[in-house]
Structure of Oleoyl-ACP hydrolase:
Amino acid sequence: MSAWFRTFAPRPSAALRLVCFPHAGGAASAFRGWAELLPPSVEVTAVQYPGRQDRIMSDPAPDMDTLVHDIAGEIAPLLDRPVAFFGHSMGATVAYEVARALPGGLRPALTRLIASARKAPHACEPLGPEYRGDEGLLRYVAGLGGTGASLLAHEELRELALFVLRGDFHLIDTYRHRPGAPLTCPITAIAGSHDAHCTRADAEGWERYTTAPYDLQEIPGGHFYLETATRELMARLTDRLAPVPAAR
């Protein structure tokens, strides 16, 4: 398989593949345990961005366009069956842009985009000046919560984490949405009930990005609700990914 993707629990006969895009500073391993919480008819594959974990020797993407181009150029083998994209935080933007970048012949394979804890593309903004520099990044990540923030307390891990965060937040700061045709697959937006960085009102902005049905889900928790309400999220995903016909 391509260096870009990790399938921790292969399910060759699965009827649908869920492709997951990590948040800024995150990696494919964030989705390692998802397969056992989803139906056997769903195979979970996670994107591994360069510059982290087993791709630490690969140069980080210089901008969002490059990252999207590189993922879209490698993803075709994963579209041998119906797929859904799940992106959390920055990953929702990446997933959306990859969906837009799919060649026309591959787009019918995409059955749903699930945008988690991220403002709609037109509303994405650079970080404020108070978050510039390493101390600012650390302060911002600490404010988001999640297990990643707690790791930054370990001095030996902090510099490695900062290397990844600098690159990812550069992608966020330089991203500008270019208007175009909406997607034709359904979109589900998800917001944590106590997430100040992506409120329910923010998530509602995704409705304009599809000509297909749209729905908004709110799950108890903050920006990283997916770590504290994992089983509830899996139940919502199972509902949104159904009906998945049995593989033959």
